[in-house]
Task: structure prediction
Amino acid sequence: MRIMGIDYGDARTGVAISDLLCTIVGTTYVVPSRNTEKAIADIVRLAQENQVGQIVVGLPRNMDGTEGPRAELCRAFADALQQATGLPVAMWDERRTTVEAHNILSQHNYHGKKRKETVDAVAASLILEGYLAYWKRQL
Result:
């Protein structure tokens, strides 16, 4: 089984998929998400092609732990993914993942358009890495 991590965004959604042993991030993608139905269809296709058994969606919380309107959108997106895939969908606190993703890309000289096209996939990888570490401790 593989686990898929999702960083849902207004324009682009980052997708990261674990290896078969669920130990590391194996592949990443970015799907356009201005059209939610199309984004869900793209993610369903990726989940099927990669034999995904579970999905984890980043949950944007405020620094004080509260949830705002963006968190509501992510929960609704996660619900739609669960209905479309039939897979279990977990939510994962994604505080600071986008900031960390930008820092990682800066350290590797990704700037401008190159960064814009990559940051969501890196953020999805960070969400998935955090969830995989938690998931392994629960076994």
Remarks:
- The mean pLDDT is 90.
